[in-house]
Amino acid sequence: MNLVLSDFVNPDYGQKYPVEMVFEWCTDIVPLGLKEQANEVWPQPKRHWFVDWAAIKTGPRAKLNEIFNRARGRANTFLWKDTDDYLCTAEQIATDGTAAAYQLCKTYHTGETEKWTEDKKDIVPGGVFAPIVTHSIDGAQTEVAANPGADQFTLDDTTGIMTWATGNKPSAGVLTVTFQFYFRVRWTFDKFTDSQFAPGLWRMKEQGPHIVEVIS
Fold first, then answer.
1. What is the residue range of 93's domain?
2. How far apart are CA 124 and CA 160, in angstroms?
3. Same structural domain for residues 11 and 73?
């Protein structure tokens, strides 16, 4: 499901900012006598968001219920735009002159030994934010655009894959890409409870929705 929760429930409707965010890693600790060995299981973290609504108006509350019920609780996924992590700026992707398709991605902590790169598959549509793409060959930069003609690329905003026509593959060089993206998430619960405390105003009985990143 490609509904974006944060499009409908935002600070104008009573959302406080996420009161808690969790980065979860998975590590296998193996005892070696008195010592131990730490083995990294996941190549990237899994994110959790705990979003607090002190008060929510009837309209956005109806949309929140719609997303919850269309997702069937935990059964299906939807999209979330993190207010602090939704933009990838000048990510560099090497081109080899033979491939026609390239995956959008974002590198975190660029330049550090502990950096990691994540594929970004759910992309903010071009009608909202058009990706900025340049192709560098031996230092010479050319800006390219999404699908104005057969010699340019198409972007699937559900996979994050840029594809060029077979006869117009990018030459060996570097793509520099700026784009916006969503996180694919799911609810962590199957039962949703809220209460109306004033005409047209609702609040959740718990701290607020807990959503967790789904990595595919």
1. 87-180
2. 10
3. yes
8 A C-beta contact, residue 67 and residue 8: yes
Domain count, the chain: 2
Q: Which long-range contacts (CB under 8 A, 24 or more apart) does 151-157 make?
A: 155/104, 155/123, 155/126, 155/131, 157/122, 157/123, 157/124, 157/125, 157/126
**39 and 67, same domain (yes or no):** yes
In this structure, the answer to whether residues 95 and 169 fall within a common structural domain is yes
Structure tokens at 20: 């808690």
- Dist. CA 130–CA 132, nearest whole Å: 6
Helix (H) or strand (E) holding 130: none
The set of residues, in sequence order, having a beta carbon less than 8 Å from that of 149 and lying 6+ positions away, is none
Tell me the C-alpha distance between 101 and 119, whole Å. 14
pTM for the predicted model, two decimal places: 0.85
The stretch 53-70 carries a mean pLDDT of 83
- What's CA 158's distance to the chain center, in Å? 11
User: Which is higher by pLDDT, 12 or 100?
Assistant: 100
Residue listed under structure tokens 């730490």: 38
Q: Name the percent of the chain in helix, strand, coil, to the closest 5.
A: 10, 45, 45
